Amino acid sequence: YYETMNCPSGLIYNAATDRCEKRKNPDAICDREQPCMNGGQCYQTGKTAYKCTCNGAWTGERCETQLSSCATNPCGP
């Protein structure tokens, strides 16, 4: 027995993660190169351009630089 997963438009079912995910586009720079590091989210802004949105503890063009502990948890007045 197995059930068919129906995903919203533009998403496909990934059996490995048991989730609906964005359809991969081999021509899209975010899917092809996966430039954002440390869990950052990639958004394509042009044919060969992208922008990374970093998770809380990371910064930089590709989320490659860890923020200091004082930046994420201020150390005094």
From TrEMBL:
Q: List the disulfide bonds.
A: C54-C63
Keywords assigned:
Disulfide bond, EGF-like domain
Which InterPro entries does this chain map to? Answer: EGF
Q: Does the keyword Disulfide bond apply?
A: yes
- Domain of life according to the entry: Eukaryota
CDD domains recorded: EGF_CA (cd00054)
Q: Does the keyword Transferase apply?
A: no
Question: Where do the EGF-like domain residues begin and end?
Answer: 26-64
Under which name does UniProt file this protein? EGF-like domain-containing protein
